[in-house]
Each structure stands twice: as structure tokens, then as C-alpha cells.
């Protein structure tokens, strides 16, 4: 009985061990020898050990992916796209869920920098100087998702354009006093860019900015949206349109308005960003902007694979497109 290893494969195929090594690592081997090696491998069922491959290539075929919240549908879509690309390239994903904890994000960035992963994709939310300093210090490929930073390869979404589409939809529907259920400005994408899109769209339509129509949610959950809307309603401020930074907080806001007896879309029309699966199920169906999260995951995976496999360390920027889906919450198909 043979002990299957490179030397044995070489003996059976009547080639040198160096030739077998080149074959296993996609190096040049003549067609005749390639066929002989392939026939032996198929006949014996030989599979090179991962440790041996690592020694030869310097790679573990592992990718680290750091996510802010695994239960988020947008994050799940991004990870789905990433996984498809890296799995097809023969890599596996190690997933690190931070639960929106900044310190955990920094900890995982440090861990993956020192650990045996070949590259990292970081789905960021609140970017700090510490985050950027860590990513810039990486000696291995890293791609940032969901945020844009000039010194790190970034795959990001058109948050500003999405806010414009949603707010403009409310304007077209006849809304005159449009409130904005926002998230913290520390978040450059969902917070700052979407708020800017809302404000600029009001200005473009000659609608004055009113600070009393800005509602800031304490977080990103449905309960956060409900609590923020409840507090806003207690102020008695009149409004007939609501742009929400995310679908999730929009669901909470709609729930609070339902409890207050406010009819949607008859009294208040609502639009948001995210277009998650619940948007077409929740009552009323929510008008929302799709940010192409899965496509972004595919793009981030492709950039990282190019960096790892081809040594392409050029900083690249890729912005995903967005699309508005009008539904019952703004009067469509009601």
C-alpha cells in the first residue's frame, strides 16, 4: 500500500517531485506530464494537506470578515456576496460579529492582522482614527465596506443619492412638511450622507429647512425608531411626510404612528432606505431605496481576491447603484 504524498505521486506519474509541486500550485507543467499527474491523482484520490499547501504558497485560504451586526439583513446580503466570490476562489470565510461595539471592531482588526488569514473585509459603521490607523498598518490585503476612505480600498453605497430619491418621492407625492428620522452623524454613510441628501433635496425643491423636523434615533433598531417617533409626536409638531434613514427604524416609527391613530399614507407618507424583505410585507408596504448590498459584497470579494492572488495593492473605490421602490406607504398601489 502506498503512503500518498507528493513523492509517491511523482513516482507513479514518472515525473519529478518538483513537477508535481508546480502542478499543485498552478505552475507550468507540460501537457503530457500534466495528464499523467492528473490521472494518478484521480485514480488514487489524493488530496494535498492544507498545512502542506500553506507551507508551499504562504496562504491559508482563509478570509476574515468583520461585521457590525449579523442579524442585519443588509449585512447578511453583503456577506452572501462576499462568500460566493471567495468560496468560488477556494477560500473560506471566518466571520467576526462585533454587535456594533467599536472596541470589538478594533480588537478583531488587530486579531486578523496577526492571525493566519490571507485578507480581511471590514464592514464598517462608525469609523474612527483608530480604525483608519489600524487598517493603514495592515501588511495583508484589506477592503472596507459600507464606508469610503481614501487610503483604503473601499466598496460603498450611494447613501446620499438614496436619501435624495426617497425625499424627492415624498415631495412628488405632495408632502410639504417632511420630517427626517435620522441616525447619528458619527456614521458617515447612514447618518451624515443620508441627512445631507435629505437637506439638499428640500433646498432643491425650495422647501425651507426646519430643525424641529429632524428626529434623531438613539440607535438602529425598530424599538429605537418607535421611541424616537413617540417622543416626536408628543411635541405636537405638524408633518405630512417622513424620511427614515433605515427601514428598520421606519418600521418602529410606523408602529408608533399607528398607536397614535395616524393613518399612513393618508395623513403621513413614509419613505426609507434599505429595501429589506420586510418592506414588501410590512403593513403598509414600505417605499424604500435598494442599495445593492449583495452586489457590493460580490465587488468587495472580487477586489480582495485580486489583491491576494495577483498582488494588486492599488487602492480602489467602487460605489454601488441605488433604486427606489414605491409602495403603499407613499400611496403607490394603495
Any overview of this molecule?
The chain has 3 domains: 6-57, Orthogonal Bundle (434 Repressor (Amino-terminal Domain)); 62-157 and 293-321, Response regulator (Rossmann fold, 3-Layer(aba) Sandwich); 159-290, 3-Layer(aba) Sandwich (Rossmann fold). It has a 6-stranded parallel sheet with strand order 2-1-3-4-5-11, with helices on both faces. The termini are far apart. By secondary structure, it is an alpha/beta fold. The chain contains 12 helices and 12 strands. The chain has helices spanning 6-13, 17-24, 31-44, 50-57, 73-88, 102-114, 129-136, 159-172, 188-204, 222-233, 247-259, 293-310; strands at residues 62-67, 92-97, 119-123, 142-145, 154-157, 178-182, 214-216, 241-244, 269-273, 287-290, 317-320, 323-325.
Present the secondary structure layout.
Blueprint: H1 6-13, H2 17-24, H3 31-44, H4 50-57, E1 62-67, H5 73-88, E2 92-97, H6 102-114, E3 119-123, H7 129-136, E4 142-145, E5 154-157, H8 159-172, E6 178-182, H9 188-204, E7 214-216, H10 222-233, E8 241-244, H11 247-259, E9 269-273, E10 287-290, H12 293-310, E11 317-320, E12 323-325
Parallel strand pairs: 1-2, 1-3, 3-4, 4-5, 5-11, 6-7, 6-8, 8-9, 9-10
Antiparallel strand pairs: 10-12
Helix pairs in contact: 1-2, 1-3, 5-12, 6-7, 8-9, 10-11
